[in-house]
């Protein structure tokens, strides 16, 4: 078996900067999936693969694959996504794809044939920025995508998803066939920026990700009585806006009590004018927790406090689910290996649960998967200000490379 | 001196129904000032005046006047406004104009020459529905309108106020000349629906109005940090939306504690999406109280709680005044006379402060003024559902007629 070659982090960062030069710039990343700039990003990825004599290959869902054959199969897959939100950050997604390429490049140029085949994957439409459906390509691969749920989706200009897919040579009716590649893979690793402030606050350059939180996203409509701000005494009001305000504060407390996250980023009033008591209010609660029992308890309590807050002001309330997903824990052995790789590179041993979803969550339904995070400056992401110091970027890349090499060197836990 | 003739309430109600038939109907009143339907309403008023051999006369601000000469001058003025909000109620404004006409009709047809000249006035653009400037005609008459403040106003279609006024033969630069008629008037009386739920709840068909509340309307902008709902732990958030929610609940408490009204009908979040902590929030507080000291105290406390609520979440806050008006008490003697007239008609003795503004508030800056209210069913107004029982409408009209006759019969307090 060949010696494990070290990943060239400086080259990976240089590739990211060149990608940003070609597909981003002043206004931020513009690699929205299924569009011209995203295709340019993939063209650049194709150029980089060609440097090491690899050619990309696409599956039925538009995911891009490249394989560096090894001594054994199935493959160890490494990847993330090149697509971005509009005016997004240069690192979100691209960081993991370029690092995956860095691992293939290290073996291809300096390590000889790897002990196990390496697969690079660039998942299609992780962000769902155009049609509102995140994790499109990875969920098609995992078989969790329900084609009928997305068939009618249209973008802001009214273009239909099936037509836009067809422009990219993807046939909606066949996207689940991407799952036929599952058998070629043994495990999946992904490097990503944290997109939150935790690691920066703690001064930790690399960390293992233990899994992704579950999410309960629910809409509450509170109905009171619109009334004149000047002629309706306080004691005769049925103010739906104040009921929603009360509920929002109590939802926050539920998030804290359960060590989860509870966000009320939407609070809309009707009629929404200065001279009228709000007759209607819409409140959306987004609840996240890694533990399924805690998440369920949060939801039960949130429903109760909204109902209570509405009744306290003689308002009615209705709830409907917008979206939900169960918590997805990553593979214990891979998480331990990821912690060891991070400790090796940065001397720190930290694991955290991702509060955002990633393609790895979809893949983890099928096979062992794990992730490595590096810090985000000020916790910012999905914005042109998204950034990470070169030092932390390099640490993350090196930890990811070390993790891949650990798994390649040790048949377990890929057996 | 002639005997005081009783007003014909049934005829006044019939006139109102005919006005509604001509200018309102299923969708509600459409007498938005400066438009065709409003002009049709005034044409109808002209027809009714012609029946008693009076011709309308307009001042420089577009207010419509008619004078029934009496034994003495200056005149006792009676009026309200024919204009309405879009899809508004059939009674708001028109009720008082038709009742004023009823008083002139009673004297003209059955009472001989009144002891004092009677002036009917239909104020222009009380609602401000098209350009957002309420009490246009009455404030021009009172001299409180600042022409430079309204010169740049445009309607929703972009039409400029000065041009729309010109279509109605009103020259903006001359509207304050309407004040030259002030000397012709001794006092002003106005009948109006309450537009709130108080009288209906108390079962009182007519009441005297002691004055209009003062209003402090202020906008607060709270600045925190927009952040990802999944990657930002609760303890690291600077949630501007929750700061605004907290402030709104505390503003409500201030309204109750000061026996005033405090409304937060506008609460807007940015970015306002389910997956982001709100980085910015806009909150508008509308505060009303009849006592100037209480109103000032409310404003001081509201500013403090917004600032506190923001600081508690490490947010900044800024405030700016949108609009303010001092409380306007009506003339003590006229209010006493109005209570006596209401007691005479309905056997109840109640006075209340109007939480909405009326033309009478502008006129009260110059001369003794008072108002009479009748109930609004369910407190509704500015909506097609606005209504009052025929019995209560008649009681209000009769109390208003009795009040006018009291003042005509007794030189005081008009001397």
Structure description:
The structure is a homodimer of 415-residue chains. Chain A has two domains: 9-212 and 327-409, Aminopeptidase; 214-325, Alpha-Beta Plaits. Chain A is built from twelve helices and 15 strands. Chain A has helices at residues 9-23, 36-51, 94-111, 136-142, 147-150, 161-167, 198-202, 240-257, 292-312, 332-346, 359-363, 390-409, and strands at 57-58, 64-68, 75-80, 118-122, 185-193, 207-212, 214-223, 227-228, 261-270, 276-277, 280-289, 316-325, 328-329, 351-354, 369-374. The longest helix of chain A is centred in the C-terminal third of the chain and has 21 residues, at 292-312. Chains A and B meet through strand 8, helix 8, strand 9, strand 10 and strand 11 of A and strand 8, helix 8, strand 9, strand 10 and strand 11 of B.
Which secondary structure elements does this structure contain, and how are they paired or packed?
The structure is a homodimer of 415-residue chains.
Chain A: H1 9-23, H2 36-51, E1 57-58, E2 64-68, E3 75-80, H3 94-111, E4 118-122, H4 136-142, H5 147-150, H6 161-167, E5 185-193, H7 198-202, E6 207-212, E7 214-223, E8 227-228, H8 240-257, E9 261-270, E10 276-277, E11 280-289, H9 292-312, E12 316-325, E13 328-329, H10 332-346, E14 351-354, H11 359-363, E15 369-374, H12 390-409
Parallel strand pairs in A: 3-4, 3-5, 5-15, 6-14
Antiparallel strand pairs in A: 1-2, 2-4, 6-13, 6-15, 7-11, 7-12, 8-10, 9-11
Helix pairs in contact in A: 1-3, 1-12, 3-12, 8-9, 10-12
Task: Please give a handful of descriptors for the protein shown.
homodimer, 415 residues, alpha/beta, Alpha-Beta Plaits, 4-stranded antiparallel β-sheet, 12 helices, elongated
């Amino acid at each position: 078996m060949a010696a494990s070659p070290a990943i060239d982090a400086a080259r990976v960062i240089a590739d990211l900067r060149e990608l940003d030069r070609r597909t981003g710039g002043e206004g931020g990343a513009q690699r929205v999936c299924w569009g011209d700039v995203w295709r340019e990003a993939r063209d650049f990825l194709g150029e980089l693969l060609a440097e090491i004599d690899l050619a990309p290959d696409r599956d039925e869902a538009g995911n891009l694959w490249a394989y560096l054959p090894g001594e054994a199969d199935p493959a160890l897959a490494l990847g993330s996504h090149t697509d971005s939100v509009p005016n997004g950050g240069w690192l979100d997604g691209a960081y993991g794809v370029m690092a995956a390429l860095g691992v293939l490049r290290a073996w291809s140029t300096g390590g000889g044939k790897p002990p196990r085949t390496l697969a690079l994957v660039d998942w299609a439409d992780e962000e769902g920025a155009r049609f509102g459906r995140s994790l499109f390509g990875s969920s098609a691969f995992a078989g969790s995508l329900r084609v009928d749920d997305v068939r009618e989706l249209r973008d802001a200009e009214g273009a239909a998803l099936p037509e836009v897919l067809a422009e990219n040579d993807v046939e909606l009716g066949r996207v689940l066939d991407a799952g036929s590649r599952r058998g070629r893979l043994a495990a999946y690793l992904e490097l990503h920026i944290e997109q939150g402030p935790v690691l920066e606050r703690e001064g930790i350059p690399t960390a293992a990700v233990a899994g992704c939180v579950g999410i309960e996203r629910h809409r509450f409509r509170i109905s009171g009585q619109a009334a004149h701000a000047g002629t309706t005494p306080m004691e005769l009001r049925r103010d739906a806006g104040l009921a929603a305000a009360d509920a929002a504060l109590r939802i926050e407390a539920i998030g804290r009590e359960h060590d989860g996250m509870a966000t009320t980023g939407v609070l809309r009033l009707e009629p929404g004018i200065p001279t009228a008591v709000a007759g209607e209010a819409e409140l959306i609660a987004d609840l996240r927790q890694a533990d399924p029992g805690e998440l369920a308890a949060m939801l039960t309590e949130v429903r109760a406090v909204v109902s209570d807050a509405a009744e306290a002001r003689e308002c009615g309330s209705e709830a409907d689910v917008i979206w939900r997903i169960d918590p997805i824990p990553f593979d214990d052995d891979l998480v331990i290996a990821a912690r060891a790789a991070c400790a090796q590179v940065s001397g720190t041993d930290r694991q955290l649960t991702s509060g955002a979803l990633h393609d790895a969550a979809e893949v983890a339904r099928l096979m062992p998967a794990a992730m490595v995070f590096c810090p985000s400056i000020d916790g910012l992401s999905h914005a042109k200000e998204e950034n990470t110091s070169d030092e932390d970027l390099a640490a993350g890349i090196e930890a990811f490379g070390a993790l891949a090499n650990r798994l390649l060197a040790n048949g377990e836990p890929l057996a």
